[in-house]
Amino acid sequence: MSLQLKPSLTYRDLLMLYLKPQWKRATLMAGLLLGSIILQLANPQILRQFIDSALQGADITPLMLAGVLFVGLSIGNQLLIVWNTYISENVAWTATNQLRTDLVRHCLQLDLAFHKSRTAGELIERIDGDVNTLASFFSQAIVNLLGNCLLIIGVLLLLFREQWLVGISISLFALLGLFILIRVRTIAVPYWIKSREKDAEFFGFLGEQLAGTEDLRANGATGYVLRRFYQILRGWLPVNVRASLAGYSTWSSTLLLFGFGNALALGISIYLWGQKALSPGSVYLIFYYTNLLSAPLEQIRTQLQQLQEAGAGIERIKQLLEVQPTILDGDGPLLPTGALSVEMHNLTFGYTPEEPVLHSLNIKLPAGRILGVLGRTGSGKTTLARLLLRLYEIQHGELLLAGIPIQQTRLHDLRQHIGMVTQDVQLFHASVRANLTYFQDDISDEQIIEVLKTLGLSNWYHSLPSGLDTILGSEGEGLSAGEAQLLALTRVFLRDPGLIIMDEASSRLDPATEQLLEQAINTLLAERTGIVIAHRLATIQRADDILIIEDGHILEYGPRQQLASDSTSHFYQLLQTGLEEVLA
Ligand SMILES: Nc1ncnc2c1ncn2[C@@H]1O[C@H](COP(=O)(O)OP(=O)(O)OP(=O)(O)O)[C@@H](O)[C@H]1O
Protein backbone atom coordinates (compact mmCIF):
# COMPACT_ATOMS: atom_id res chain seq x y z
CA MET A 1 0.00 0.00 0.00
CA SER A 2 1.43 3.36 -0.95
CA LEU A 3 1.64 6.09 1.62
CA GLN A 4 -1.75 7.71 1.84
CA LEU A 5 -1.27 9.38 5.16
CA LYS A 6 -1.56 13.12 5.00
CA PRO A 7 -0.87 15.80 7.58
CA SER A 8 -4.59 16.75 7.82
CA LEU A 9 -5.33 13.43 9.49
CA THR A 10 -8.69 12.97 11.28
CA TYR A 11 -10.38 10.11 13.14
CA ARG A 12 -12.45 9.53 10.03
CA ASP A 13 -9.36 9.32 7.76
CA LEU A 14 -7.80 6.76 10.08
CA LEU A 15 -10.92 4.65 10.08
CA MET A 16 -11.25 4.86 6.31
CA LEU A 17 -7.58 4.08 5.68
CA TYR A 18 -7.07 1.26 8.12
CA LEU A 19 -10.45 -0.16 9.08
CA LYS A 20 -12.22 0.00 5.73
CA PRO A 21 -10.06 -2.75 4.19
CA GLN A 22 -11.10 -4.90 7.14
CA TRP A 23 -14.80 -4.07 6.96
CA LYS A 24 -15.82 -7.74 6.94
CA ARG A 25 -14.04 -8.45 10.21
CA ALA A 26 -15.26 -5.17 11.71
CA THR A 27 -18.87 -6.08 10.76
CA LEU A 28 -18.43 -9.52 12.32
CA MET A 29 -17.10 -7.79 15.44
CA ALA A 30 -20.21 -5.57 15.63
CA GLY A 31 -22.45 -8.63 15.03
CA LEU A 32 -20.78 -10.59 17.85
CA LEU A 33 -21.11 -7.65 20.18
CA LEU A 34 -24.80 -7.27 19.36
CA GLY A 35 -25.33 -11.02 19.95
CA SER A 36 -23.59 -10.76 23.30
CA ILE A 37 -25.75 -7.75 24.32
CA ILE A 38 -28.95 -9.60 23.43
CA LEU A 39 -27.86 -12.65 25.45
CA GLN A 40 -26.91 -10.51 28.45
CA LEU A 41 -30.31 -8.81 28.36
CA ALA A 42 -32.31 -12.00 27.78
CA ASN A 43 -30.75 -14.17 30.45
CA PRO A 44 -32.17 -12.43 33.56
CA GLN A 45 -35.67 -12.78 32.05
CA ILE A 46 -35.24 -16.59 32.23
CA LEU A 47 -34.11 -16.32 35.84
CA ARG A 48 -37.09 -14.19 36.75
CA GLN A 49 -39.36 -16.79 35.12
CA PHE A 50 -37.53 -19.50 37.02
CA ILE A 51 -37.88 -17.82 40.45
CA ASP A 52 -41.54 -16.88 40.00
CA SER A 53 -42.50 -20.34 38.64
CA ALA A 54 -40.58 -22.05 41.48
CA LEU A 55 -42.33 -19.93 44.10
CA GLN A 56 -45.69 -20.79 42.55
CA GLY A 57 -44.79 -24.52 42.82
CA ALA A 58 -44.28 -25.27 39.13
CA ASP A 59 -43.26 -28.72 37.81
CA ILE A 60 -39.61 -29.67 38.00
CA THR A 61 -39.20 -30.24 34.22
CA PRO A 62 -39.83 -26.64 33.02
CA LEU A 63 -37.68 -25.41 35.91
CA MET A 64 -34.85 -27.72 34.83
CA LEU A 65 -35.24 -26.55 31.27
CA ALA A 66 -35.07 -22.90 32.34
CA GLY A 67 -31.94 -23.67 34.38
CA VAL A 68 -30.24 -25.42 31.46
CA LEU A 69 -31.20 -22.58 29.13
CA PHE A 70 -29.76 -20.01 31.55
CA VAL A 71 -26.45 -21.86 31.83
CA GLY A 72 -26.36 -22.49 28.05
CA LEU A 73 -26.92 -18.81 27.23
CA SER A 74 -24.28 -17.75 29.79
CA ILE A 75 -21.71 -20.06 28.21
CA GLY A 76 -22.78 -18.88 24.74
CA ASN A 77 -22.26 -15.29 25.82
CA GLN A 78 -18.74 -16.03 27.11
CA LEU A 79 -17.89 -17.76 23.82
CA LEU A 80 -19.11 -14.72 21.88
CA ILE A 81 -16.94 -12.46 24.07
CA VAL A 82 -13.82 -14.60 23.48
CA TRP A 83 -14.48 -14.70 19.73
CA ASN A 84 -15.04 -10.95 19.69
CA THR A 85 -11.77 -10.34 21.58
CA TYR A 86 -9.89 -12.51 19.09
CA ILE A 87 -11.34 -10.66 16.10
CA SER A 88 -10.90 -7.20 17.62
CA GLU A 89 -7.25 -7.85 18.50
CA ASN A 90 -6.68 -9.02 14.93
CA VAL A 91 -8.36 -5.95 13.52
CA ALA A 92 -6.38 -3.65 15.81
CA TRP A 93 -3.01 -5.22 15.08
CA THR A 94 -3.56 -5.38 11.34
CA ALA A 95 -4.58 -1.72 11.32
CA THR A 96 -1.81 -0.45 13.57
CA ASN A 97 0.89 -2.52 11.89
CA GLN A 98 -0.10 -0.94 8.59
CA LEU A 99 0.03 2.48 10.22
CA ARG A 100 3.46 1.72 11.73
CA THR A 101 4.71 0.62 8.30
CA ASP A 102 3.42 3.83 6.70
CA LEU A 103 5.08 5.95 9.38
CA VAL A 104 8.40 4.12 9.08
CA ARG A 105 8.26 4.62 5.30
CA HIS A 106 7.55 8.31 5.83
CA CYS A 107 10.49 8.67 8.25
CA LEU A 108 12.85 6.84 5.91
CA GLN A 109 12.01 9.35 3.19
CA LEU A 110 12.83 12.31 5.39
CA ASP A 111 16.10 14.23 5.05
CA LEU A 112 19.18 13.20 6.98
CA ALA A 113 18.99 16.54 8.77
CA PHE A 114 15.67 15.41 10.33
CA HIS A 115 17.22 12.20 11.65
CA LYS A 116 20.35 13.93 12.91
CA SER A 117 18.27 16.31 14.99
CA ARG A 118 16.31 13.54 16.75
CA THR A 119 17.28 10.71 19.02
CA ALA A 120 16.47 7.13 18.13
CA GLY A 121 14.35 6.90 21.29
CA GLU A 122 12.20 9.84 20.20
CA LEU A 123 11.42 8.23 16.85
CA ILE A 124 10.65 4.88 18.47
CA GLU A 125 8.22 6.64 20.79
CA ARG A 126 6.65 8.41 17.80
CA ILE A 127 6.26 5.32 15.68
CA ASP A 128 5.41 2.78 18.32
CA GLY A 129 4.24 4.64 21.41
CA ASP A 130 1.76 6.91 19.66
CA VAL A 131 0.50 4.15 17.42
CA ASN A 132 -0.06 1.92 20.46
CA THR A 133 -2.52 4.44 21.80
CA LEU A 134 -4.45 3.97 18.58
CA ALA A 135 -4.59 0.17 18.91
CA SER A 136 -7.39 0.29 21.44
CA PHE A 137 -9.08 2.97 19.36
CA PHE A 138 -9.22 0.54 16.45
CA SER A 139 -9.95 -2.60 18.47
CA GLN A 140 -12.48 -1.41 20.96
CA ALA A 141 -13.18 2.24 21.33
CA ILE A 142 -15.64 2.79 18.50
CA VAL A 143 -17.49 -0.52 18.34
CA ASN A 144 -17.41 -1.21 22.07
CA LEU A 145 -18.38 2.30 23.04
CA LEU A 146 -21.46 2.01 20.87
CA GLY A 147 -22.05 -1.53 22.17
CA ASN A 148 -21.84 -0.42 25.79
CA CYS A 149 -24.20 2.50 25.19
CA LEU A 150 -26.59 0.06 23.55
CA LEU A 151 -26.36 -2.33 26.51
CA ILE A 152 -27.06 0.46 28.99
CA ILE A 153 -30.02 1.71 26.94
CA GLY A 154 -31.31 -1.89 26.67
CA VAL A 155 -31.06 -2.41 30.45
CA LEU A 156 -32.77 0.89 31.21
CA LEU A 157 -35.61 0.23 28.72
CA LEU A 158 -36.21 -3.19 30.24
CA LEU A 159 -36.22 -1.66 33.72
CA PHE A 160 -38.76 0.94 32.55
CA ARG A 161 -40.85 -1.89 31.12
CA GLU A 162 -40.69 -3.58 34.52
CA GLN A 163 -41.62 -0.55 36.59
CA TRP A 164 -41.40 3.17 35.67
CA LEU A 165 -40.15 4.23 39.11
CA VAL A 166 -37.29 1.74 38.92
CA GLY A 167 -36.52 2.90 35.37
CA ILE A 168 -36.29 6.57 36.40
CA SER A 169 -34.22 5.91 39.56
CA ILE A 170 -31.69 3.64 37.90
CA SER A 171 -31.38 5.94 34.84
CA LEU A 172 -30.56 8.84 37.14
CA PHE A 173 -28.08 6.64 39.01
CA ALA A 174 -26.41 5.60 35.72
CA LEU A 175 -25.99 9.22 34.60
CA LEU A 176 -24.67 10.39 37.95
CA GLY A 177 -22.44 7.30 38.19
CA LEU A 178 -20.83 7.97 34.82
CA PHE A 179 -20.21 11.58 35.74
CA ILE A 180 -18.59 10.59 39.07
CA LEU A 181 -16.44 7.89 37.46
CA ILE A 182 -15.07 10.31 34.90
CA ARG A 183 -14.39 12.96 37.56
CA VAL A 184 -12.57 10.56 39.87
CA ARG A 185 -10.42 9.39 36.99
CA THR A 186 -9.27 12.87 36.10
CA ILE A 187 -7.98 13.24 39.66
CA ALA A 188 -5.69 10.22 39.13
CA VAL A 189 -4.45 11.23 35.65
CA PRO A 190 -1.63 13.64 36.65
CA TYR A 191 -0.13 10.97 38.89
CA TRP A 192 -0.11 8.47 36.06
CA ILE A 193 1.45 10.97 33.66
CA LYS A 194 4.23 11.63 36.19
CA SER A 195 4.76 7.92 36.63
CA ARG A 196 5.05 7.43 32.86
CA GLU A 197 7.53 10.29 32.59
CA LYS A 198 9.66 8.57 35.22
CA ASP A 199 9.35 5.28 33.29
CA ALA A 200 10.60 7.02 30.13
CA GLU A 201 13.50 8.61 32.04
CA PHE A 202 14.49 5.27 33.51
CA PHE A 203 14.36 3.36 30.22
CA GLY A 204 16.12 6.18 28.37
CA PHE A 205 18.93 6.04 30.92
CA LEU A 206 19.09 2.25 30.80
CA GLY A 207 19.19 2.20 26.97
CA GLU A 208 22.00 4.76 26.88
CA GLN A 209 24.08 2.90 29.44
CA LEU A 210 23.58 -0.48 27.78
CA ALA A 211 24.63 0.94 24.41
CA GLY A 212 27.83 2.27 25.94
CA THR A 213 28.66 -0.68 28.22
CA GLU A 214 32.05 -1.29 26.63
CA ASP A 215 33.22 2.32 26.96
CA LEU A 216 31.78 2.69 30.45
CA ARG A 217 33.62 -0.35 31.73
CA ALA A 218 36.83 0.51 29.94
CA ASN A 219 36.78 4.00 31.46
CA GLY A 220 35.87 2.84 34.96
CA ALA A 221 32.53 4.64 35.00
CA THR A 222 30.60 1.74 36.55
CA GLY A 223 30.39 3.48 39.94
CA TYR A 224 28.94 6.61 38.35
CA VAL A 225 26.35 4.58 36.44
CA LEU A 226 25.23 2.74 39.57
CA ARG A 227 24.90 5.99 41.48
CA ARG A 228 22.76 7.54 38.72
CA PHE A 229 20.78 4.32 38.53
CA TYR A 230 20.09 4.45 42.24
CA GLN A 231 19.12 8.14 42.08
CA ILE A 232 16.60 7.43 39.35
CA LEU A 233 15.16 4.46 41.23
CA ARG A 234 14.85 6.58 44.37
CA GLY A 235 12.99 9.24 42.42
CA TRP A 236 10.77 6.58 40.88
CA LEU A 237 9.53 5.13 44.16
CA PRO A 238 7.40 7.98 45.62
CA VAL A 239 5.92 8.78 42.20
CA ASN A 240 4.83 5.19 41.71
CA VAL A 241 3.46 4.91 45.23
CA ARG A 242 1.35 8.02 44.64
CA ALA A 243 0.19 6.74 41.25
CA SER A 244 -0.80 3.38 42.77
CA LEU A 245 -2.68 5.11 45.58
CA ALA A 246 -4.51 7.26 43.04
CA GLY A 247 -5.37 4.11 41.09
CA TYR A 248 -6.61 2.47 44.27
CA SER A 249 -8.83 5.41 45.09
CA THR A 250 -10.36 5.18 41.60
CA TRP A 251 -11.00 1.51 42.10
CA SER A 252 -12.48 1.90 45.60
CA SER A 253 -14.71 4.77 44.50
CA THR A 254 -16.04 2.54 41.71
CA LEU A 255 -16.82 -0.21 44.21
CA LEU A 256 -18.52 2.25 46.51
CA LEU A 257 -20.60 3.65 43.69
CA PHE A 258 -21.85 0.28 42.52
CA GLY A 259 -22.54 -0.71 46.12
CA PHE A 260 -24.72 2.36 46.34
CA GLY A 261 -26.45 1.42 43.05
CA ASN A 262 -27.25 -2.05 44.36
CA ALA A 263 -28.58 -0.65 47.62
CA LEU A 264 -30.77 1.77 45.66
CA ALA A 265 -32.13 -1.00 43.43
CA LEU A 266 -32.82 -3.26 46.40
CA GLY A 267 -34.41 -0.48 48.43
CA ILE A 268 -36.84 0.49 45.66
CA SER A 269 -37.56 -3.15 44.86
CA ILE A 270 -38.35 -4.01 48.50
CA TYR A 271 -40.64 -1.00 48.70
CA LEU A 272 -42.46 -2.00 45.52
CA TRP A 273 -42.63 -5.62 46.64
CA GLY A 274 -44.21 -4.43 49.89
CA GLN A 275 -46.76 -2.57 47.72
CA LYS A 276 -47.31 -5.84 45.84
CA ALA A 277 -46.21 -4.09 42.65
CA LEU A 278 -43.34 -6.58 42.02
CA SER A 279 -42.92 -10.34 42.18
CA PRO A 280 -39.80 -11.85 43.88
CA GLY A 281 -38.57 -12.84 40.42
CA SER A 282 -38.86 -9.21 39.27
CA VAL A 283 -36.96 -8.04 42.36
CA TYR A 284 -34.13 -10.36 41.38
CA LEU A 285 -34.37 -9.19 37.78
CA ILE A 286 -33.96 -5.53 38.82
CA PHE A 287 -31.03 -6.39 41.08
CA TYR A 288 -29.41 -8.36 38.22
CA TYR A 289 -29.90 -5.57 35.66
CA THR A 290 -28.47 -2.94 38.00
CA ASN A 291 -25.42 -5.10 38.48
CA LEU A 292 -25.18 -5.54 34.72
CA LEU A 293 -24.81 -1.77 34.35
CA SER A 294 -21.50 -1.63 36.23
CA ALA A 295 -19.34 -3.23 33.52
CA PRO A 296 -20.46 -0.98 30.61
CA LEU A 297 -20.35 2.14 32.78
CA GLU A 298 -16.79 1.33 33.83
CA GLN A 299 -15.83 0.50 30.25
CA ILE A 300 -17.31 3.70 28.85
CA ARG A 301 -15.04 5.58 31.20
CA THR A 302 -11.93 3.76 29.93
CA GLN A 303 -13.07 4.05 26.32
CA LEU A 304 -13.56 7.78 26.63
CA GLN A 305 -10.04 7.93 28.00
CA GLN A 306 -8.78 5.79 25.11
CA LEU A 307 -10.46 8.16 22.68
CA GLN A 308 -8.69 11.08 24.35
CA GLU A 309 -5.35 9.28 24.19
CA ALA A 310 -6.01 8.35 20.57
CA GLY A 311 -6.74 12.03 19.92
CA ALA A 312 -3.37 12.98 21.38
CA GLY A 313 -1.70 10.14 19.41
CA ILE A 314 -3.28 11.36 16.16
CA GLU A 315 -2.10 14.87 16.94
CA ARG A 316 1.52 13.71 17.36
CA ILE A 317 1.33 11.52 14.26
CA LYS A 318 0.04 14.55 12.36
CA GLN A 319 3.03 16.58 13.50
CA LEU A 320 5.32 13.86 12.23
CA LEU A 321 3.52 13.76 8.89
CA GLU A 322 3.81 17.51 8.57
CA VAL A 323 7.56 17.14 8.27
CA GLN A 324 8.15 16.62 4.60
CA PRO A 325 11.38 15.72 2.79
CA THR A 326 12.99 18.74 1.14
CA ILE A 327 15.27 16.64 -1.06
CA LEU A 328 13.06 15.28 -3.80
CA ASP A 329 13.47 13.38 -7.04
CA GLY A 330 14.62 15.57 -9.92
CA ASP A 331 13.28 15.25 -13.46
CA GLY A 332 16.61 14.91 -15.26
CA PRO A 333 17.82 11.88 -17.23
CA LEU A 334 18.86 8.65 -15.50
CA LEU A 335 22.56 8.33 -14.74
CA PRO A 336 24.52 6.29 -17.29
CA THR A 337 25.99 2.91 -16.35
CA GLY A 338 29.75 2.64 -15.89
CA ALA A 339 32.19 5.05 -14.30
CA LEU A 340 30.74 8.51 -13.52
CA SER A 341 32.55 11.81 -13.87
CA VAL A 342 32.25 14.33 -11.00
CA GLU A 343 32.45 18.10 -11.35
CA MET A 344 32.07 20.84 -8.78
CA HIS A 345 31.82 24.49 -9.73
CA ASN A 346 31.99 27.03 -6.90
CA LEU A 347 30.29 24.57 -4.60
CA THR A 348 29.45 26.06 -1.22
CA PHE A 349 27.54 24.33 1.56
CA GLY A 350 26.76 24.75 5.26
CA TYR A 351 24.54 22.72 7.57
CA THR A 352 23.05 26.10 8.38
CA PRO A 353 23.31 28.39 5.33
CA GLU A 354 24.89 31.20 7.42
CA GLU A 355 27.82 28.99 8.43
CA PRO A 356 29.38 27.40 5.32
CA VAL A 357 31.43 24.28 5.95
CA LEU A 358 32.62 23.95 2.35
CA HIS A 359 33.63 27.07 0.41
CA SER A 360 33.70 27.51 -3.38
CA LEU A 361 35.04 24.07 -4.31
CA ASN A 362 36.10 23.61 -7.95
CA ILE A 363 36.93 20.04 -8.91
CA LYS A 364 36.88 18.14 -12.17
CA LEU A 365 37.22 14.39 -11.83
CA PRO A 366 36.93 12.53 -15.16
CA ALA A 367 35.20 9.13 -15.18
CA GLY A 368 37.45 6.29 -14.01
CA ARG A 369 39.92 8.45 -12.06
CA ILE A 370 40.60 8.19 -8.36
CA LEU A 371 40.67 11.24 -6.14
CA GLY A 372 42.40 11.01 -2.78
CA VAL A 373 40.97 13.53 -0.30
CA LEU A 374 43.13 14.63 2.62
CA GLY A 375 42.39 17.00 5.44
CA ARG A 376 42.41 17.35 9.17
CA THR A 377 39.51 16.33 11.39
CA GLY A 378 36.54 18.62 10.82
CA SER A 379 37.84 20.01 7.52
CA GLY A 380 34.72 18.90 5.60
CA LYS A 381 35.63 15.55 3.98
CA THR A 382 32.56 13.64 5.22
CA THR A 383 30.35 16.58 4.31
CA LEU A 384 31.64 16.34 0.74
CA ALA A 385 30.70 12.64 0.63
CA ARG A 386 27.23 13.40 1.98
CA LEU A 387 26.65 15.99 -0.75
CA LEU A 388 27.61 13.48 -3.45
CA LEU A 389 24.98 11.08 -2.07
CA ARG A 390 22.50 13.98 -1.91
CA LEU A 391 21.91 13.40 1.76
CA TYR A 392 22.03 17.20 1.93
CA GLU A 393 21.29 19.64 -0.89
CA ILE A 394 24.03 21.98 -2.08
CA GLN A 395 23.26 25.65 -1.52
CA HIS A 396 25.46 27.48 -4.03
CA GLY A 397 27.35 26.48 -7.12
CA GLU A 398 27.04 23.28 -9.10
CA LEU A 399 27.65 19.59 -8.52
CA LEU A 400 27.47 17.48 -11.69
CA LEU A 401 27.51 13.70 -11.98
CA ALA A 402 28.17 12.45 -15.51
CA GLY A 403 27.32 16.02 -16.54
CA ILE A 404 23.88 15.93 -14.85
CA PRO A 405 23.23 18.50 -12.10
CA ILE A 406 22.75 16.54 -8.87
CA GLN A 407 19.44 18.27 -8.09
CA GLN A 408 18.03 16.77 -11.31
CA THR A 409 18.82 13.19 -10.35
CA ARG A 410 16.35 10.72 -8.88
CA LEU A 411 17.32 9.64 -5.40
CA HIS A 412 16.94 5.91 -5.94
CA ASP A 413 18.85 6.05 -9.24
CA LEU A 414 21.59 8.18 -7.66
CA ARG A 415 22.10 5.82 -4.75
CA GLN A 416 22.16 2.83 -7.11
CA HIS A 417 25.05 4.45 -8.96
CA ILE A 418 27.08 5.53 -5.95
CA GLY A 419 28.55 3.15 -3.43
CA MET A 420 29.81 4.35 -0.09
CA VAL A 421 32.03 2.52 2.36
CA THR A 422 32.58 4.23 5.69
CA GLN A 423 34.64 3.48 8.76
CA ASP A 424 31.52 2.48 10.69
CA VAL A 425 30.36 -0.63 8.92
CA GLN A 426 26.72 -1.16 9.74
CA LEU A 427 26.01 -4.86 10.03
CA PHE A 428 22.61 -6.21 11.02
CA HIS A 429 21.55 -9.14 13.15
CA ALA A 430 20.54 -11.10 10.05
CA SER A 431 21.99 -13.70 7.68
CA VAL A 432 25.24 -13.05 5.82
CA ARG A 433 23.18 -13.05 2.63
CA ALA A 434 20.77 -10.37 3.88
CA ASN A 435 23.69 -8.30 5.15
CA LEU A 436 25.44 -8.43 1.80
CA THR A 437 22.45 -7.89 -0.46
CA TYR A 438 20.68 -5.44 1.86
CA PHE A 439 17.60 -7.67 1.70
CA GLN A 440 17.46 -7.45 -2.11
CA ASP A 441 16.18 -10.80 -3.42
CA ASP A 442 17.30 -10.43 -7.03
CA ILE A 443 20.98 -11.02 -6.20
CA SER A 444 21.70 -14.74 -6.56
CA ASP A 445 23.85 -16.80 -4.17
CA GLU A 446 26.24 -17.58 -7.06
CA GLN A 447 26.83 -13.84 -7.57
CA ILE A 448 27.55 -13.35 -3.87
CA ILE A 449 29.98 -16.28 -3.71
CA GLU A 450 31.72 -15.05 -6.86
CA VAL A 451 32.23 -11.57 -5.39
CA LEU A 452 33.46 -13.02 -2.08
CA LYS A 453 35.99 -15.00 -4.10
CA THR A 454 37.07 -11.96 -6.11
CA LEU A 455 37.63 -10.00 -2.90
CA GLY A 456 39.71 -12.81 -1.38
CA LEU A 457 37.07 -13.82 1.17
CA SER A 458 36.77 -17.48 0.03
CA ASN A 459 38.40 -18.82 3.20
CA TRP A 460 36.18 -16.75 5.41
CA TYR A 461 33.11 -17.89 3.47
CA HIS A 462 34.08 -21.57 3.82
CA SER A 463 34.56 -21.13 7.55
CA LEU A 464 30.92 -20.03 8.01
CA PRO A 465 28.93 -22.79 9.75
CA SER A 466 25.79 -22.38 7.62
CA GLY A 467 27.24 -20.61 4.58
CA LEU A 468 25.27 -17.54 3.51
CA ASP A 469 22.51 -18.46 5.97
CA THR A 470 24.87 -17.92 8.93
CA ILE A 471 23.38 -15.31 11.20
CA LEU A 472 25.71 -12.45 12.11
CA GLY A 473 25.64 -11.01 15.63
CA SER A 474 24.21 -7.53 15.99
CA GLU A 475 26.62 -4.78 14.92
CA GLY A 476 28.91 -7.38 13.38
CA GLU A 477 29.68 -9.07 16.69
CA GLY A 478 32.16 -11.90 16.14
CA LEU A 479 33.78 -10.23 13.11
CA SER A 480 37.09 -8.44 13.15
CA ALA A 481 37.20 -4.81 11.98
CA GLY A 482 38.97 -5.94 8.81
CA GLU A 483 36.39 -8.62 8.05
CA ALA A 484 33.58 -6.15 8.60
CA GLN A 485 35.27 -3.73 6.16
CA LEU A 486 35.63 -6.51 3.62
CA LEU A 487 31.95 -7.33 3.95
CA ALA A 488 31.11 -3.68 3.39
CA LEU A 489 33.21 -3.75 0.22
CA THR A 490 31.42 -6.89 -0.93
CA ARG A 491 28.10 -5.18 -0.38
CA VAL A 492 29.09 -2.24 -2.56
CA PHE A 493 30.67 -4.50 -5.17
CA LEU A 494 27.42 -6.44 -5.56
CA ARG A 495 25.57 -3.26 -6.49
CA ASP A 496 28.17 -2.45 -9.15
CA PRO A 497 28.10 1.38 -8.79
CA GLY A 498 29.90 3.78 -11.13
CA LEU A 499 31.26 5.97 -8.32
CA ILE A 500 32.74 4.70 -5.08
CA ILE A 501 33.19 6.93 -2.08
CA MET A 502 35.40 5.51 0.64
CA ASP A 503 36.01 6.90 4.07
CA GLU A 504 38.96 4.73 4.87
CA ALA A 505 39.41 2.97 8.16
CA SER A 506 42.21 4.65 10.04
CA SER A 507 42.40 1.86 12.60
CA ARG A 508 45.44 -0.28 12.14
CA LEU A 509 44.70 -3.71 10.76
CA ASP A 510 47.01 -6.72 10.98
CA PRO A 511 49.29 -6.97 7.91
CA ALA A 512 47.48 -10.01 6.43
CA THR A 513 44.03 -8.36 6.66
CA GLU A 514 45.43 -5.07 5.45
CA GLN A 515 46.85 -6.76 2.40
CA LEU A 516 43.53 -8.48 1.77
CA LEU A 517 41.76 -5.16 2.13
CA GLU A 518 44.17 -3.44 -0.24
CA GLN A 519 43.57 -6.06 -2.90
CA ALA A 520 39.82 -5.81 -2.40
CA ILE A 521 39.90 -2.03 -2.74
CA ASN A 522 41.98 -2.28 -5.90
CA THR A 523 39.48 -4.70 -7.42
CA LEU A 524 36.58 -2.51 -6.34
CA LEU A 525 38.01 0.67 -7.78
CA ALA A 526 39.06 -0.82 -11.12
CA GLU A 527 37.10 0.81 -13.96
CA ARG A 528 35.14 2.96 -11.54
CA THR A 529 35.48 6.53 -10.39
CA GLY A 530 36.70 6.69 -6.81
CA ILE A 531 36.74 9.37 -4.14
CA VAL A 532 38.80 8.12 -1.26
CA ILE A 533 39.07 9.96 2.02
CA ALA A 534 42.55 8.80 2.78
CA HIS A 535 44.19 8.16 6.09
CA ARG A 536 46.99 5.87 4.88
CA LEU A 537 49.89 6.12 2.46
CA ALA A 538 48.80 2.98 0.61
CA THR A 539 45.59 4.68 -0.47
CA ILE A 540 47.34 7.83 -1.53
CA GLN A 541 49.55 5.86 -3.85
CA ARG A 542 46.45 4.52 -5.53
CA ALA A 543 45.00 8.00 -6.20
CA ASP A 544 45.39 9.74 -9.57
CA ASP A 545 44.58 13.15 -8.13
CA ILE A 546 44.97 14.67 -4.68
CA LEU A 547 42.66 17.15 -2.96
CA ILE A 548 43.73 18.67 0.34
CA ILE A 549 40.96 20.48 2.23
CA GLU A 550 41.54 22.89 5.08
CA ASP A 551 38.58 24.42 6.93
CA GLY A 552 36.35 23.73 3.97
CA HIS A 553 38.64 25.45 1.44
CA ILE A 554 40.79 23.78 -1.20
CA LEU A 555 44.35 24.01 0.04
CA GLU A 556 45.77 22.05 -2.86
CA TYR A 557 44.37 20.12 -5.81
CA GLY A 558 46.20 18.40 -8.67
CA PRO A 559 47.60 15.17 -10.16
CA ARG A 560 49.30 13.12 -7.44
CA GLN A 561 52.57 12.50 -9.25
CA GLN A 562 52.98 16.16 -10.11
CA LEU A 563 52.35 17.23 -6.48
CA ALA A 564 54.57 14.49 -5.09
CA SER A 565 57.55 15.65 -7.14
CA ASP A 566 57.05 19.35 -6.36
CA SER A 567 59.03 20.06 -3.19
CA THR A 568 57.06 23.29 -2.62
CA SER A 569 53.68 21.52 -2.48
CA HIS A 570 51.79 20.78 0.74
CA PHE A 571 51.38 17.19 -0.42
CA TYR A 572 55.16 16.82 -0.69
CA GLN A 573 55.48 18.11 2.89
CA LEU A 574 52.80 15.69 4.05
CA LEU A 575 54.63 12.78 2.49
CA GLN A 576 57.82 13.83 4.20
CA THR A 577 56.20 14.26 7.61
CA GLY A 578 54.11 11.10 7.37
CA LEU A 579 50.41 11.13 6.63
CA GLU A 580 49.23 9.44 9.79
CA GLU A 581 51.07 11.87 12.03
CA VAL A 582 49.66 14.95 10.31
CA LEU A 583 46.10 13.82 9.77
CA ALA A 584 45.48 11.72 12.85
N1 LIG B 1 25.13 17.23 10.94
C1 LIG B 1 25.88 18.31 11.14
N2 LIG B 1 25.30 19.46 11.53
C2 LIG B 1 26.03 20.57 11.74
N3 LIG B 1 27.35 20.64 11.57
C3 LIG B 1 27.99 19.53 11.18
C4 LIG B 1 27.29 18.30 10.95
N4 LIG B 1 28.20 17.37 10.57
C5 LIG B 1 29.39 17.97 10.56
N5 LIG B 1 29.29 19.27 10.92
C6 LIG B 1 30.37 20.26 10.99
O1 LIG B 1 30.91 20.41 9.69
C7 LIG B 1 32.32 20.51 9.72
C8 LIG B 1 32.94 19.45 8.81
O2 LIG B 1 32.64 18.18 9.34
P1 LIG B 1 33.01 16.82 8.58
O3 LIG B 1 32.39 15.73 9.33
O4 LIG B 1 32.65 16.99 7.15
O5 LIG B 1 34.58 16.80 8.76
P2 LIG B 1 35.61 15.65 8.36
O6 LIG B 1 36.70 16.31 7.61
O7 LIG B 1 34.92 14.54 7.69
O8 LIG B 1 36.11 15.20 9.80
P3 LIG B 1 36.64 13.72 10.25
O9 LIG B 1 37.91 13.46 9.57
O10 LIG B 1 36.78 13.90 11.74
O11 LIG B 1 35.54 12.77 9.90
C9 LIG B 1 32.73 20.37 11.18
O12 LIG B 1 32.96 21.66 11.67
C10 LIG B 1 31.55 19.78 11.85
O13 LIG B 1 31.43 20.25 13.15
Description of the structure:
By secondary structure, this protein is an alpha/beta fold. It folds into three domains: 1-162 and 305-326, ABC transporter transmembrane region fold (Up-down Bundle), CATH 1.20.1560; 164-277; 342-583, P-loop containing nucleotide triphosphate hydrolases (Rossmann fold, 3-Layer(aba) Sandwich). Helices cover 65% and strands 10% of the residues. The protein contains 20 helices and ten strands. The strands form two sheets. The protein has a six-stranded mixed β-sheet, sandwiched between helices. A four-stranded antiparallel β-sheet has the order 2-1-4-5, with helices on one face. Strand 4 and strand 5 (404-405) form a beta hairpin. Helix 6 (164-211) packs antiparallel against helix 8. The relative contact order is 0.08. The mean pLDDT is 84. The structure holds adenosine-5'-triphosphate. Adenosine-5'-triphosphate (ATP) binds next to helix 10. One of its GO terms (molecular function) is helicase activity. InterPro entries: AAA+_ATPase, ABC1_TM_dom, ABC1_TM_sf, ABC_transporter-like_ATP-bd, P-loop_NTPase, Type_1_exporter. Residues 342-576 form the ABC transporter domain.
